[in-house]
Structures are given as C-alpha cells and as structure tokens.
Amino acid sequence: MPASKPQTPPARPAASSLAQALLGLFATLATVAAVLVWLMQGSVNEYWRQTYHQEPRWAAWSAWPAWQLGGQWQQDMTAKRQAWADRWRQFDAHAAQVFSQLWQSAPGASAAPSAAAPRQPISASTPEPAPVAPPGKRPAPAANPASLPASQAQPRPAAQRTASPEPAAGSMLESPPEPVSAATAPPVMAPTIMAAAPAGKPATWAQAGGTIALDKTDRVFFVGDSMMQGVAPHVRRILTKEYGIDSLDLSKQSTGLAYPGFFDWPKTVQNTFAQHPDIRLMVVFLGPNDPWAFAVEKGQPYAKFKSEAWETAYRARIRALLDTARTHQAAIIWLQVPAMKNQKLDSGMQYLNSLYAAEVQTAHGMLIDSNQVLGQTEGRFNAYADIDDKKVKIRIDDGVHFTVAGQKLLAQAILARIQPVAAPALQAQRDASNPETP
C-alpha cells in the first residue's frame, strides 16, 4: 500500500496576514506612545495649556498614583541629568582654573591680572550727563546729583532727554563705540540699585544717565523668547570681539511669563544670578507668547487675558525678574515688543508693553522702543525700513520675527546703551557716583 503524502495546511489569505501585521504594528506604536506620554506627562500637559489655553482633558488622571509615578520618574531622570551636567561644568571650570594657574606660573609668563574691584554700595541717584564741550576742550566734570540741593536735582526737560538720536540705522554694527579712558569718559548710569523716583518726577527720571558702564570683569545676561534668539548673538559678538565682555544667552523659543510650568523665567533668572555674580546687565525681550488666559495658581480656573487677576499675576512675574536683577546690583534693559502683523496679537502686545513700561520704569531700568528703532511709524507694522535711502526688509513673513537686518538694528540699539570703559575709568566713575564710599 503506497505511503500517503503529508497534507499541507491551507495557506492563509494574504489579506489576513497583512491585517494582523498592521494590527500588531499599531498596538506596538500605541503602547510606545502611551508610555512616552506617561513619562513625559508634565511636558505634554504644558504644551496643551500653552497651545489651547485650558487644562488638558486628561487632567483628572493626575489624581491616580499609577499616573503620578510616570511623572515622578521623568522628574528624577531630569534631575539626575542636570546633576551630571552641573558636575561636568564644575569639572570644566576647575580644569580651566588649574590650567590658568599652571600657565601663569610658567617661566616668562606675565603677571596675573589684578582682582576685580568690589561692587560699590547702592547709589540713590543717577548722574546727569556732562555738557558737550567746545571742540578741542576737555568736558568739565559733571556735578553729582546726590550732592546737589533738592531744588537743583531735577531731571532734564523731555526735549533734552531725547536730544541724542538713535544710532544711524545704516551703520549696522559696523562701527561700535570705542572704549574711553578715565579722563575723557562721560558720566554714565552705573548698573546699581537705585531708590524710587521722587514723588512728582516723570517716569524717565532714572534714565537721565543714558548709558550703562561695563568693563571686562562684567557679564551681560540675555533673557527672552525666539525674538531674543535672533538679536542676542549680534550683541554678544560685538561685546566679545570688540570689548572682551562676556555674556550669557538663555533665550528660548516659545517661552514667556504666562506659563511657568513650561519654562519658569523668574526661577531661571534667580538661579542664573546666583551662579554668575558677575552679571551687571540683564537684557529682556519677550511677550508674543503671553497674551492668553492662564491659571494664576495651579488647579484654579483660568484667568481671562487682561482681567484684573491676570494683570496682577503677570505684573508680579515681571517684578520677579526686575527685583532679582536689582538685588544683584545689575542694570536692566527691556525691549518693548514692536508692532505685529496680526491685529489681535498687536493689540495684546500694546497692552503688555504698557505693563512692561510701568514696571521697568518703577525699577529704574531702561526701555527701548522697538517700534522707533525699526521705523514702525505710529506703531503700525511695516516689513520694510528705510536704511541708507534703500527699502530694506526687516520683518519676516510671519509678522512677528525679524530678518538679519532687523535683528542688527535692535542689537545696535542695545549696544548704544552700553558704554565700554577700561577698568580704572569704570572704577573712577562708580566711585564718583558713590561719594560716601571710603
């Protein structure tokens, strides 16, 4: 009897195999996505709040211990990564210090530079700028306002305060100001904490000095969103290349003061000043990410944009930045947001600019009118500006950000308010602005 042939199983339809493979792939992707959301729930929640300006629909899950565990693991991993990064920075700084000591102790090495002069006590007044001397004559030293009678310590009229025009748009950072010596340096506004403006004085009383004196021992700190990310590099390049002044740029896109859960600028500024006590100037440029409702306190209903509760909370966050700078005796430059192409966003920026102006002037910081710098006539958006008798595009098509030409105009406005001074001249001016210093 012949052997029977083994029966082969019937082949499964190709369509069924493909469906099962796709179903398995979908299940795998869904599982991976769920695990990532579980681990990164904090970032996902903040993205939802910042994008849709309301609590995420799964906010109730945060009450479940199993859901909280994923967020805790993510925080722990972030903390460990930050700790590792901090240890590496400390090692790098220590290595640089050891190398510097070895270099200085080598035969024929130049003497180590003298230690930076200590910070001077707080000044309660702002020195007036020296009058312009006739050609060929050295300007006479200006009287210290702190030593004048109250009847004479008055601010200049508005016409005089605005007599110095903005730097020419066409120079485009190509001709930065030269450092000055102790004998010829004009009085400048020392970057120190100043007392509140006397009652009845105009809001610009603290800006009469006009510029901020910095030398190679000082550091500039840039705070802001994607607008600052475009402007800060131009300023930093000039500060480093021309004057040897260090700077620190922590600007981060999509950030502001409305959503500290996404990025907490007041806390970041506080930590940065603690880590870098040599910061003598803080430059701030932000706003377009903020004109939305937010929760004043975690878990509370969202406060409507421009409401009393919203404004109170937002002003407190502005003051948190300014108070930290004042506590560390750093000067402040705050750039107002220029006109926006979108009318609704532009209206929100005008409101925020009014808050910035009020708080910065109270803190005796310097305000830069970005509309004036960019030639936005009467505060109206214009993508082009007249530079050297030519129409130059200064805003990109999104109606918010700037071309390289626009970035350089704003950078030039910041540099125009910084007076690089050699260390002896700077110390002499700080001593002059603090006559009681022994």
Please, could you describe this protein's structure?
By secondary structure, the chain is an alpha/beta fold. Among the domains are: 18-71, no CATH class; 185-433, Rossmann fold. Helices cover 41% and strands 10% of the residues. It contains 11 helices and 11 strands. The protein has helices at 14-39, 41-52, 65-105, 158-161, 226-243, 265-275, 308-327, 343-362, 370-374, 404-415, 423-433; strands at 212-214, 219-224, 246-249, 279-285, 294-295, 302-303, 331-335, 366-368, 384-387, 390-393, 418-420. Strands 3-2-4-7-8 form a 5-stranded parallel sheet, sandwiched between helices. The chain has a two-stranded parallel ribbon with strand order 1-11. Strands 5-6 form a two-stranded antiparallel ribbon. The radius of gyration is 29 Å and the shape is globular. 30% of the residues are buried. Mean pLDDT is 74; it is low at 110-209.
Features:
438 residues, Rossmann fold, alpha/beta, two-stranded parallel sheet, globular, 5-stranded parallel beta sheet, 41% helix
Helical residues, percent: 40-55%
| Physical arrangement of strands within the biggest beta sheet | 3-2-4-7-8
Percent of sequence in beta strands: 5-15%
Pattern of helices and strands: HHHHEEHEHEEEHEHEHEEHEH
Q: Tell me the radius of gyration.
A: 29 Å
SS-based class: alpha/beta
Which topology of the domain at 185-433 does CATH recognise? Rossmann fold
Number of strands: 11
The first-level CATH class name of the domain at 185-433: Alpha Beta
Helical stretch tally: 11
- Major beta-sheet overview: 5 strands, parallel
- Principal-axes shape call: globular
Give the terminus-to-terminus CA distance. Answer: 123 Å
CATH superfamily of the domain at 185-433: SGNH hydrolase
Residue windows where pLDDT falls under 50 for at least 5 positions: 110-209
Question: Mean pLDDT, nearest integer?
Answer: 74
CATH architecture of the domain at 185-433: 3-Layer(aba) Sandwich
| Assembly level | single chain
